[in-house]
Amino acid sequence: MEFEKRDSKYCMVEDDKELALKAAQGDPEACREIFERCLNMVFYISKIYTQGDRESAKDLTQQVFARAFRSIGSLEPPYNIAAWCARIAHNQGIDHVKENARERRGLSEYIKVMETHGSDPEKIMLIHEATRAVADSFEAGVAGILKETARLYYGEGKSVAETAVAMGVSKTVVTTRLSRFRARLRELVAEKLGDD
After folding, report:
1. Which end of the chain has fewer surrounding CB within 10 Å, N or C?
2. What total number of domains does the chain contain?
3. Cβ contacts of residue 54 below 8 Å, gap of 6+?
4. Which residues constitute the domain of residue 72?
């Protein structure tokens, strides 16, 4: 790669705008140039979001470049391809972390059941039936606004602040609604399990 000095900064000879336009038109050399220029940086960012897991980081890196090449035509001034790829890697990394958090929550719930009730298949089946009954009651017994707040926070993995923005309310309102949701859920569980 050749570099030239411009305004006391080292820049690629190939202008990012021109490179992006070529890549958007499907030029394989331009795509290869972007890939080679940004690969190490994107992989490094991916490793951070996958906690050093190389295989997951490779998968995430592929996702980043797939997204980058699908949307290369949307790159706007100042046409900094490296910064743009870094932003995509960051966003994909956040999505990866959120997805894994949801999976871990489900796994941790299963582990809690196993620790509390052992691995007795009959007990586990009863717990699953009770859970299903609570879910049915939940649909009928929880107010819509509490359900929506819980869906954003628990279901989509949004933070309290993100949920507040999505709903157009304050963080205090969200925490109050989540508290009411948990209280109502405890009541429904108690009703279904007959622990009143």
Report:
1. C
2. 2
3. 47
4. 10-98
